[in-house]
Design brief:
single chain, mainly beta, Methylamine Dehydrogenase, Chain H, 20 helices, about 35% strand, globular
C-alpha cells in the first residue's frame, strides 16, 4: 500500500484541480503545478566549454518518459530520463500526488540518459526499467542500464549480466517478440555523435552492410536470462541517425515489423519481418516519400479501418516567418542526385502514412492537417477525448535555434582558418549563447473522423511555449481518460490532467495476462467492435520519442455501444469476448484463447480488378527525356514537360476491333497497339515526328473515307516558344493502318497544347475540333492559344474568332469535353485548366457563349487537370466530374484567401518571373524561399540581405507599387476535385469528391458501370511527380474506384476490394472493348509501365 498523504495536501490538490477545471471548463487538459504533484524533475542543460553543440551534436535532443506500475498497486508510476541531471523515478500515491524515490530505489544516475522502456524484462510479473544512454566521453559511460525490479520499490542495475550494456550511443529501445518464440527480444536505435551539421546531409553512397557506427541493433532473447546481438545475421545493416522507433505488424502477416525514423539525409527504414529471423528494408517500395529529418514516430490505426498507419515528425513550422528563417530552398539537381544514390524521396514536413492494406501507403499529412508543427519530437496517437477516434499530441521546441539560416551563414564565417583554435571556440560558444531559444507550444490535434485533424491546442489547454521532448500517456488517476506526462528541457516536467470525465465520456480499459515469457501480451492485436465504429489496436509500449507507455490499453467509446472484443495473441490464438460493459477495466487472459486453423485465418475476398498486361501482350513502358523546366523558369510551381503520355482509342485497320495509340515524349516515338482476333495486341511504332512531344491525341475520321485518322497535339516545354516541334500533326489513314502526315490539312498551329476533342459543332456532318493550348514555353503563366478548327472535307480552318474570340486565349487548358449539358440538341464545350474556373461555352449554333458565370461556376478557379461527363444521378442530364490539385498539398486556396501569381519581367531580362503568393495564418506572403526568388530576380538580393528581412515581409510590402503595375495576375480559389451536379436549369451545384479523391492531383477520370448494377461509377488516377523540390511530388493516389448509388452519391472502395491499384504518375485512363465484347481499363503513366485491368464482373 502506498504511504499516506497528508489531509491538507489532498484537500489543497482537490481545490486546485477543481478551481483549474472550473476556470477552464472548455479545456480538455489542465497542466498541474509541480508544487502539488511533487514532480520537480527538470532536464536542465546549460552550455559550457565541454557541453555545447560543437562538441556534442545531440546536446539538445532531450530525454524520454517511461510509465509503468512498479509495485503492482494499480497506479501508474513515472520515470524521467535525464541528460546532465540524474534520472528520476516517481511513485504514484493517488490523486495526482507523486513521491520521488530516485535515491532509495537505486536508479540515481550520472550518465547522459535518453530513452526509457518500462517493461517486465525478466518476466517475474514486476516492471523493470531499461535506459538508453548516449553522450560523449569514455565508452563505459555510455553503457545502457537495466534496472531489475526487486519487488520492494528498489532496483538493481544488471545490464551487463543480461547482455544489454550496449555502448553504441543509444536513443531508445523497443521490446517485442520478433521471432515469435514466446519471449521478448529488444531492438535498439542508435544515434552517434561523431558528426557535424556540414557532413550529415552530404550525398554519398549509403552504408548498407552494417559497417557504420550508426547502424541499429537487434538483441535476441536467449530464453536463459541473457540477450545476444544478432543484428548482422538478422539483416539489421542499414545506417541512420535514428530518433524514433515503432513496432507493429504493418503488413498484417502475423510477424512484427520495425519502423525507424532517421534524422538528416539518411532514409527512414521499414524493416519487414520475413518470418525466418531476418528483416528486409521495404521502405522504398512501401512509401513514395518520407519526412526528411525524421524525429519521433507513432504507429496506430487513426482512421479505424483495421490497418496500422504511421505518423513521423519533422520540423516544418506553421508560420511564415519561421518557415522562411529555418527551411532552406531545395535544389532540384541535388534532389535527383539523392534519388540516384538510393535515398528515398524526403521532404521537410511531418508525414502521415495511410496504410492502404496492400503493402502500400499514401502519405496524407498535408491533407490531414498535421504536417506543420515546427521543431517536433514526440507524437502520440491516442483517444484523448474518448470519442472513439485517435487524436494526436505533439511535443515541440529546441534549446537553441541553430536552424536559423542567418546564423548558419554567420557560423560558416566563424569557421575561417584565421585566429587560434581557442579564439574560434570562444567565438562559437559566444554565438551559441546569443542564439535565441526556439521554445514553441506543443500541439493537440483532434481526429475529425474523416481522415483529417483539427488543431485544438488552445481549446485543449496548451498555453505556454516549451522545450518539450519525450512524452507518455497513462490514466494516472484511473478515471477512464488518458493523462499526459512530458519531459522538458530547463523547466519542470509537465503533468497534463485530462478532464474528459467531466464530459460524461465513455471508455473501456483492458489489461492483458499473457503466457509465461510474454506476460504483458506484447504484440497482441485487439479489435473493439461496435455498432458504428470498429477500433483496432496493436499492443507495443515504445512509442513517440524515447518513451514507453503504460501497459493498460485504453479505448474511448464516444456514443458507440460495444458489440464484442476480438484479441489475436502473438501466437495467433484468438479470443472473442461479448457482453462487455462500458466504463470499466477488464482483464483478457491468454489461457482463454482458442487456436484457429490456418484456412480460417486466411479467408479473404476476390478483388474486382486484376492486371492483365502480360496476358493481352500490352507490355510497354513510357520513356521520358531529361529536360528540367526549372532551369528556364526557376519559380515554376511544377514542370510542364512531363504531362504525358495520353491515349486515343479507335479501329485503325478496318477489322472492327478497337485499337489504341499512346503518345511518346520528345525524342521517343508514339505507338499503336493493334488488337488481334484473339483479344491480344500487337505493338506498332508510328515512327514519325519523334522530336515532338505528344500530348492529347484523337482517332477519328477526318476526311470522311470510313477509317480513323490520327490527330496528335504537340506540347511540352522542351523547346523555344516558336519551335517547329510545337506544330500539331494530322496523319491520314490509308484504311489498313498505315499513316501519312498531311501538313496542308491544318492551319499553321505552333503552340504547346494539351488536348484535342471532336464534335460536329457546325452541323455539316463531319467532325470539327477543339484544340486546347497548355502553356507558353518559357513564359508561364501567359495564356497560350487554343483553337476551334472547322472541318471541310479533311481540311481544317481556324474559326475561333468566328465563334468566340475569347476562346483563343482562354487560359492554360488541360482538359476538354463536348456534352449537351442543357439538352438543347447541340454539344457545348466545357474546359478545365490551370488557374482557370471550369468554363462552359454554350453552343447556340453560330456562337459559343461563355456562360460560366451564370452556370454557377465563376468561383471554381483551380489547378484542374481532367474533366468527364455522365448522368451520375440518373435524372437525364449530364453532370460533370473534374480532377483538381486536391488538398494534400502545402498550397491552400479559397475565395477569401486565393493563391495568386503575379507574373512580369521584373528584372527586364526578357524572362517572365511568375511570383506566387498565398495565405499563411491569414496573411498573404510570397510562396518561394528567399534563395529561389533572389536566384530568379537578382535585384531582390539587395532588398532582402538577410533571411530574417525576407521572412518578416508580407507580399504587399515586398514590392514597390510601380513594380506590380501591369503584372499579369491570376488566381486559384479552389483545389478540391469536384462533382458538379447538373440542376437541369442551366446551373451546376458543386460537391467535393470523397476524401480519398483529394489526396493527389487527378489526371484521369473514367465514368463507367464497374459492377454491372446499371449505375454509373467512377475510376480515378493521378499524381504529379514534377513538383518543385521544396514542395515535393504529389504522389498519394494509388487509383480509386468510387461506387455510384445512381443518385449522385459516390463511395470509395478500398483497393483491397477493388484491385484497382495504380501507384504511378498516372496521366490518362481509357475503357477499351475487346473482341468478345468484354472491356478493359487502360492506364498510362509517365516514365512507367502501361497498366491494363480486367473487371471480373465482366471478364
Amino acid at each position: 500500500m502506498k504511504n499516506k498523504v497528508g489531509l491538507f495536501g489532498s484537500l489543497l490538490l482537490m481545490l486546485f484541480i477543481g478551481s483549474s477545471c472550473n476556470n477552464t471548463s472548455d479545456h480538455l487538459f489542465t497542466e498541474l503545478d509541480a508544487s502539488l504533484t511533487k514532480i520537480d524533475f527538470s532536464n536542465d542543460i546549460e552550455e559550457d566549454e565541454e557541453h555545447n553543440i560543437y562538441n556534442f551534436m545531440n546536446i539538445y535532443t532531450g530525454g524520454g518518459v517511461g510509465v509503468g506500475d512498479i509495485n503492482n498497486d494499480g497506479l501508474s508510476d513515472i520515470f524521467f530520463a535525464g541528460n546532465l541531471v540524474s534520472n528520476k523515478l516517481y511513485l504514484n500515491k493517488g490523486d495526482f500526488i507523486f513521491e520521488d524515490i530516485t535515491e532509495t530505489s537505486g536508479v540515481l544516475s550520472n550518465n547522459w540518459s535518453t530513452g526509457v522502456s518500462m517493461i517486465d524484462v525478466n518476466q517475474d510479473g514486476w516492471v523493470d526499467i531499461y535506459v538508453a544512454v548516449s553522450g560523449g566521453g569514455k565508452e563505459e559511460k555510455r553503457a545502457n542500464k537495466l534496472y531489475i525490479n526487486q519487488k520492494n520499490n528498489t532496483f538493481t542495475e544488471e545490464a551487463l549480466k543480461y547482455g544489454l550494456a550496449d555502448t553504441s550511443q543509444s536513443t531508445q529501445s523497443a521490446f517485442f517478440d520478433y521471432d515469435l518464440d514466446g519471449d521478448l527480444d529488444m531492438f535498439l536505435i542508435v544515434n552517434p555523435v561523431d558528426y557535424s551539421l556540414s557532413s550529415v546531409n552530404t550525398i554519398r553512397p549509403r552504408k548498407l552492410n552494417g559497417e557504420s557506427n550508426s547502424t541499429d541493433k537487434l538483441y535476441r532473447n536467449n530464453g536463459d536470462g541473457t540477450f545476444s546481438d544478432v543484428s548482422s545475421e538478422s539483416g539489421i545493416l542499414i545506417e541512420g541517425y535514428s530518433l524514433g522507433v515503432g513496432v507493429s505488424d504493418i503488413d498484417n502477416d502475423g510477424w512484427p515489423d520495425i519502423y525507424v525514423s532517421n534524422d538528416f539525409l539518411t532514409n527512414d527504414i521499414l524493416y519487414r519481418n520475413n518470418g525466418d529471423g531476418t528483416f528486409s528494408d521495404v521502405s522504398n517500395t512501401y512509401f513514395k516519400h518520407t519526412s526528411f529529418a525524421g524525429m519521433g514516430n507513432d504507429i496506430a490505426d487513426f482512421n479505424n479501418d483495421g490497418l496500422a498507419d504511421i505518423m513521423v515528425l519533422d520540423m516544418l513550422p506553421e508560420d511564415n516567418e519561421r518557415q522562411k528563417m529555418i527551411i532552406p530552398a531545395s535544389s532540384f539537381d541535388k534532389f535527383q542526385m539523392m534519388l540516384k544514390n538510393g535515398y528515398t524521396a524526403q521532404y521537410t514536413r511531418n508525414t502521415l502514412q495511410l496504410n492502404n492494406g496492400n503493402n502500400s501507403f499514401s502519405e496524407i499529412g498535408q491533407f490531414a492537417g498535421i504536417s506543420q508543427t515546427d521543431w517536433s519530437w514526440s507524437v502520440l496517437m491516442a483517444d484523448y477525448d474518448n470519442d472513439g477516434f485517435k487524436d494526436a499530441f505533439i511535443t515541440n521546441g529546441f534549446r537553441r535555434d541553430i536552424g536559423d539560416l542567418d546564423y548558419i551563414n554567420y557560423q560558416q564565417q566563424l569557421s575561417n582558418p584565421f585566429g587560434s583554435e581557442k579564439v574560434r571556440k570562444e567565438k562559437k560558444l559566444k554565438a551559441i549563447k546569443e542564439l535565441p531559444s526556439a521554445a514553441i507550444k506543443n500541439y493537440f490535434f483532434k481526429n475529425n473522423g474523416d481522415h483529417t485533424f483539427s488543431n485544438t491546442s488552445k481549446d485543449w489547454g496548451i498555453k505556454n511555449v516549451s522545450l518539450s521532448n519525450g512524452s507518455a500517456f497513462a490514466d494516472l488517476d484511473n478515471d477512464g481518460d488518458l493523462d499526459l506526462i512530458v519531459n522538458n528541457i530547463n523547466e519542470k516536467a509537465s503533468i497534463l490532467k485530462n478532464n474528459s470525465e467531466k464530459q460524461t465520456s465513455r471508455f473501456l480499459k483492458i489489461k492483458l495476462k499473457g503466457k509465461a515469457g510474454n506476460l504483458e501480451g506484447i504484440g497482441s492485436k485487439i479489435t473493439l467492435h461496435s455498432n458504428d465504429n470498429n477500433q483496432y489496436y496493436q499492443h507495443y509500449l515504445s512509442r513517440g520519442y524515447e518513451s514507453s507507455m503504460d501497459q493498460t490499453i485504453h479505448f474511448g467509446l464516444g456514443e458507440s455501444k460495444i458489440d464484442s472484443i476480438t484479441i489475436v495473441w502473438p501466437d495467433k490464438r484468438i479470443q472473442v469476448v461479448k457482453n462487455v460493459l462500458e466504463n470499466q477495466v477488464i482483464t483478457l487472459e491468454h489461457g482463454n484463447a482458442q487456436k484457429v486453423s490456418q484456412k480460417e485465418n486466411m479467408e479473404g475476398i476476390t478483388p474486382l480488378f486484376s492486371e492483365v498486361s502480360d496476358a493481352l501482350k500490352t507490355k510497354y513502358k513510357h520513356q521520358e527525356n531529361n529536360f528540367v523546366d526549372f532551369k528556364v523558369q526557376l519559380l515554376l510551381p511544377h514542370m510542364h514537360s512531363k504531362n504525358g503520355p495520353k491515349m486515343a482509342l479507335g479501329d485503325i485497320n478496318g477489322d472492327s476491333l478497337e485499337d489504341f495509340y499512346i503518345g511518346g515524349s520528345a525524342g521517343y516515338s508514339g505507338r499503336f497497339f493493334v488488337q488481334k482476333s484473339d483479344g491480344t495486341f500487337e505493338e506498332q511504332e508510328l515512327n514519325m515526328d519523334i522530336t515532338a512531344e505528344d500530348m492529347g491525341s484523337l482517332l477519328f475520321d477526318a476526311d470522311g473515307d470510313g477509317d480513323n485518322d490520327l490527330y496528335v497535339v504537340s506540347g511540352g516545354s522542351e523547346f523555344n516558344a516558336d519551335a517547329p516541334e510545337y506544330e500539331d500533326r494530322l496523319y491520314f489513314n490509308n484504311g489498313s493502318g498505315d499513316f501519312v502526315k498531311d501538313k496542308s490539312a491544318l492551319p499553321k498551329i505552333i503552340a504547346s497544347g494539351s488536348v484535342v476533342t471532336a464534335s460536329d459543332f457546325d452541323k455539316d456532318g463531319d467532325l470539327d475540333l477543339f484544340v486546347g493550348g497548355r502553356i507558353a514555353p518559357g513564359q508561364y503563366p501567359i495564356s497560350p492559344k487554343s483553337y476551334l478548327l472547322e472541318n471541310n472535307g479533311g481540311k481544317f480552318t481556324d474559326v475561333t474568332n468566328n465563334f468566340n474570340q475569347n476562346l483563343a486565349n482562354v487560359g492554360m487548358v488541360t482538359a476538354a469535353v463536348w456534352t449537351d449539358y442543357d439538352q438543347d440538341g447541340k454539344n457545348d464545350l466545357i474546359l478545365a485548366g490551370e488557374f482557370m474556373p471550369i468554363k462552359i461555352f454554350k453552343n447556340s449554333g453560330s456562337q459559343f457563349e461563355d456562360v460560366t458565370d451564370t452556370s454557377g461556376l465563376a468561383d471554381t478557379s483551380g489547378w484542374w487537370n481532367s474533366i468527364a461527363s455522365g448522368d451520375m444521378d440518373g435524372d437525364g442530364d449530364m453532370d460533370l466530374i473534374a480532377g483538381n490539385l486536391g488538398t494534400n498539398s502545402r498550397y491552400k486556396a479559397s475565395i477569401d484567401q486565393p493563391l495568386c501569381i503575379y507574373a512580369k519581367d521584373y528584372d527586364k531580362n526578357n524572362s517572365i518571373d511568375p511570383i506566387m503568393c498565398y495565405y499563411i495564418q491569414g496573411e498573404n506572403y510570397i510562396a518561394h524561399p528567399r534563395d529561389k526568388i533572389t536566384g530568379q530576380i537578382a535585384s531582390m538580393r539587395g532588398r532582402f540581405k538577410t533571411y530574417e528581412s525576407y521572412a518578416k515581409v508580407k507580399f504587399g510590402d515586398a514590392f514597390l507599387p510601380e513594380e506590380l503595375e501591369n503584372a499579369l495576375v491570376i488566381k486559384a480559389t479552389n483545389f478540391k476535385s469536384t462533382y458538379f451536379e447538373n440542376m437541369g436549369d442551366g446551373t451546376f451545384k458543386s460537391k467535393p469528391l470523397p476524401a480519398m479523391a483529394q489526396i493527389a492531383p487527378l489526371n484521369g477520370i473514367q465514368i463507367t458501370d464497374v459492377d454491372g448494377d446499371n449505375k454509373l461509377d467512377v475510376l480515378l488516377v493521378g499524381n504529379n511527380y514534377s513538383g518543385d523540390a521544396s514542395i515535393g511530388n504529389h504522389d498519394g493516389m494509388i487509383g480509386l474506384y468510387l461506387k455510384g448509388d445512381g443518385k449522385g452519391g459516390l463511395v470509395p472502395v478500398p483497393v483491397t476490394s477493388s484491385g484497382f491499384y495504380v501507384n504511378t504518375d498516372a496521366k490518362d485512363i481509357k475503357e477499351l472493348t475487346l473482341t468478345d465484347g468484354r472491356s478493359v481499363i487502360l492506364v498510362s503513366s509517365n516514365s512507367d509501365s502501361l497498366r491494363v485491368f480486367s473487371n471480373h464482373t465482366r471478364w
